[in-house]
Write a structure and sequence with these properties.
InterPro entries: DUF2086. The chain is of the alpha+beta class. The chain is built from 6 helices and 15 strands. The protein has one domain: Jelly Rolls (Sandwich), CATH 2.60.120.620. Helices cover 29% and strands 33% of the residues. The strands form 3 sheets. A 7-stranded antiparallel β-sheet has the order 1-11-7-15-5-4-2. Strands 3, 6, 9, 10, 12 and 13 form a 6-stranded antiparallel β-sheet that branches. A hairpin with a 2-residue loop joins β12 and β13.
């Protein structure tokens, strides 16, 4: 799929990402572990991306969740080169999220710092043998769900990722809510159910995030998943910023 030519896609995507209030989004991420970017994609763009699912030439692998104990449903990993819109979103979102990621690592006492540009971070991944693209397209039908999990794929993992809902709740499907859980030391886990409309993106923590406590920052562990689909069909595109081994 080529929604736009590569250069035009990059410029248009940079402009659409820049229009969001990143100070507010960064505060939501640091305060709750997730933030919603409303109407990141248009309905037409959502339909075009979802329509790629049966076209095997765009993908490097096809996963049936039940075979691996991941839940019930299926997804496909895109191959390189990525569709222009997916590639440009990955590049445009990364620098803004790298600022949050570096702040988190400093607060958690972790040495890893992320470069300002996505290309430089991908080079780090590839130098460590993580060369397979990770953006993916997921498809759910009634009864399908995604178990709580973390998308790590290798030693080098970017701590934030993005999922964009391509289907319209209440029209295309019911159920299938995005769920984020946060395991806090010596406390009960906290659950966040994130309401999304078609074209909305949720940015969320992949693995750990810092939380300010009375004695300084402590680390909490997060997992994400999707609740059971009740009816219809649900498509989501996931943008993961590190590549896989």
């Amino acid at each position: 799929m080529t929604i736009h030519s590569t250069d035009v896609a990059a410029r248009l995507t940079e402009a659409r990402v820049a229009r969001y209030d990143w100070a507010v989004l960064g505060g939501e991420l640091s305060g709750h572990g997730c933030a919603v970017m409303e109407k990141l994609l248009s309905p037409d763009e959502c339909r075009q991306i979802a329509g790629l699912y049966p076209e095997e030439g765009h993908f490097r692998s096809h996963i049936h969740m039940a075979r691996h104990g991941f839940g019930k449903g299926e997804y496909r990993y895109f191959r390189y080169p990525l569709p222009d819109l997916i590639a440009s979103l990955r590049s445009a979102l990364y620098p803004r999220l790298a600022t949050v990621a570096n702040d988190w690592n400093e607060r958690m006492g972790q040495a890893q710092r992320y470069p300002a540009e996505h290309a430089a971070f991908l080079k780090q991944c590839h130098d460590q043998g993580q060369t397979r693209p990770t953006p993916l397209l997921l498809q759910y039908v009634p009864g399908d769900f995604n178990c709580l999990h973390q998308d790590l794929y290798g030693d080098l993992a970017f701590p934030l990722q993005v999922a964009i809902l391509l289907s319209e709740p209440g029209e295309d499907f019911t159920g299938g809510e995005f769920v984020l859980t946060e395991q806090r030391p010596r406390m009960q886990s906290r659950v966040e159910v994130v309401p999304l409309r078609q074209g909305d993106a949720v940015v969320f923590a992949v693995h750990n995030r810092p939380v300010q406590g009375t004695k300084g920052n402590y680390r909490v562990n997060l997992r994400h998943g999707v609740s059971r689909l009740r009816s219809g069909m649900r498509h989501t595109v996931g943008i993961i910023f590190h590549d896989a081994k």
